[in-house]
Amino acid sequence: MPGSAPPAGGSLIRLSDIHKIYDSGASSVHALRGVSLGIQAGESIAIMGPSGSGKSTLMHILGCLDVPSRGEYRLAETLVSRLTPRELARVRNQRIGFVFQTYNLLPRASIVRNVELPMMYGGVGRAERHERALLALERVGLRGRALSLPAQLSGGQRQRVAIARALVNLPSILLADEPTGNLDSRTGLEIMALFEELNAQGHTIIVVTHDPRVASHARRVIRIVDGLVEDGSSSDPGVEPTA
Amino acid sequence: MTLGESIADGLAEIRAHALRTLLQTLGVVLGVASLVAVLGLVDAGRREAMAFFSEVGGLTKILVVNRPPREATVTARQLASDGLTWQDAQAIRREIPLVARVDPMAGVPLKVRHGDYLREQTVTGATPDFQAVYKFFPARGRFLIDDDLAASARVCVLGESAAREYFGNEDPLGATLFLGDVGFRVVGVMKRKEFYFNEGSDNALEWMNRMTLVPLTALYTRFTGDTQKHLAYINVLVDRIENNGRATEAVKALLHRRHGGVDDFEVWNRQEMLTRADEQGAMYKALFLTTGLVSLLVGGIVIMNIMLASFQERVREVGLRKALGARASDIAIQCLVEALLVTGLGGTAGLALGVGFAKAITALLDRPAVITPFMALAGIGASVATGLVFGLYPAVRAARLAPVEALRYE
Hints:
Chain A is an alpha/beta fold and 243 residues long. Chain A is 33% helix and 25% strand. A 6-stranded mixed sheet of chain A has the order 6-7-8-3-9-10, sandwiched between helices.
C-alpha cells in the first residue's frame, strides 16, 4: 500500500537537474532549466512563481502527467522519469492525488461515483470502492451529499469532493494546482484549513499557487523563476524543511 | 475499469445526449431497417416459390409442351410433324438416362354423368407416375396403376372437389361414373391439395382437386380414337438437380430429331425459371442492400463526425481520467464502447423498423415477408461493425491525448 510514510533512507521526492524543453517548430521553449529539489514525506510545500515561470510544468512533472526532457525524478525510490506511459498511469493512480483549480468533477456522475473513479482505474472491487469513497467523503464532511450531482454543490463543496477523490487511493503526495483559485476568500481559507488538517494527519501536500496568502499556509515555499528554483537555501535536495 | 463500468458510463453519456444520440444513429437505424426489410421480402418470395414448386414437381421438373406454329404460313414439314406424342414420352424414358420419371398427360372435354349430375368436364389421361410428380396421393382407394394402363381399364380417380361435385354426399368409391357414354369405376379419391400464396387468396392448386383422371391409354382407345396418341404435355423429372441443364438439352435434341427438325415444342426447365427469378431478386436485393450499406456508411460517418465534435468538449474529461490513472487503453475502450452502444441501439431500432417495413409491405402489396434470426443477426452485426469501424478513429485519437494537453484545454 503506497502510504505516506517516508521511504527508508531518502526523500519521498528527489528531482535532479530537471529540464523541460517544449519544441514548437523553429522556436523551442526552455520551461525548466535544471531544477533540483528534495521533498520529505509529510512536508507541506507551496510552489510559487509568476505565470510563465515554469511552475505549472514542474507540477506536471511532479504529478507524472509529463516527463522531463532531461534529468532524473525519483518518487519513493522509483525512477519515474524512465517509466512508460502505461506505468506512469499506474503511478498517477496509486501515488498521486490531484486537486485542480476547476475541480474537474464528472458532471453527470454522482458525488460518490466521482470519488470512486480513481479506484475504478485501480481495479478495486465495487463494494470496497463504494465503502472507501464514502469514508473519504466523510473525511471532507460530505458523506451526506454522496448521491448529489456536482452541479448541486457549492464551489467549496465541489473542491472538497475533489480532495476526497484525491485521497481515496491513499497517495504518496497530494498535488493541488491553484486549489482556491475559483473560490471566494472565506471558502478558500476553509479549503486551506482542510489541507493543513490533512498534512497534520501525515499527508504530503504540494500546492502550486501564485497567491502568497495561500502559500503562507505551507511550511515551506519553493519559488520558481525563469525555470529555476530561486531560493537556493531551501531547495537543495535532502534539506530539512524550515518550520 | 471493467467493461460493465464502461457500458454504464456509455449509457449515462447517451442518456445525457438523447437527441444527439438519436440524430447520430438515424443513418444506422435506416440502414439496418432497409437491410432487414429487403432480406425479409426477397427471402420470403423465394421460400414461397420453392414451397409451391415442391408441391408441383420440385426443381428437377422439366416441362415439355406443344408449341403451335407461329408463322402465318405453315410449311409441309410442320404439317408432317405430329406434336408431342406418347411415343415421344417413351423415347425420352428410354433414351435419356438422366431422366427419373416421365409423366405424359392429355386431356379431352367429355360429358360427365352420374345420377342427376350431367356436365361437360375436362377428363385427364395420366400415368401412374403422375402421383409421384405432383405428390398427389389417394385419400381413399388407390391411384392409377400400370395394370390399368396396360388394359386401358375403365377406372377413374377423382380429385376431392370433383368427387364432391359429382357425388354429393354419396360414397364415390366403387360407384360408376359415366364419361361420355362409357361407364368408369371410381377406384380412388385423392387427398386435397392446397397452396395459398397469400392469406385470403385462392387455392393455387384447386385445379388438381377438380381433376377426373383416367388411364392415358383408356383416353385414346375409349374416346379420341387417336392412333397417334397426342399429348398435351410431358412432365420429366431429372434424377439429380445438377443434371437439369444437360437433361433439358438432351430432351430438346431428342424431340428435334423425332419431329423431323421441327421445333413444335417447348421445354421449360424449372430451375432455370427459379434462377431467372433469383437473378431478378438479386437485382432488387443488390439495389436495396447497396442503399442500406450506403445508409450505414453515411450513418457511420455521422457517428464519427459527432464523436469527433463532442470530442472537443470531452478533452478535459479525458485529461482528468488520465490524471486519475486511466491508461490509453481504458480511454480507447470507453470511446469504442460508447460508439458500439450507439450503433447497437441504432441497429436494434433499425431491426424493429425493418420488421415494421416488411409487415407494412406485406399488408399493402400482398407480398409475404419473413424475418429470420439470421437476418436479425446480420442487421445488428452490420450496425455494430459500423460502430467499430467508425468509432475506432475517435477512440484512438482520444487515447493518444497527452494528459497535460488534455487538462490544459479550455
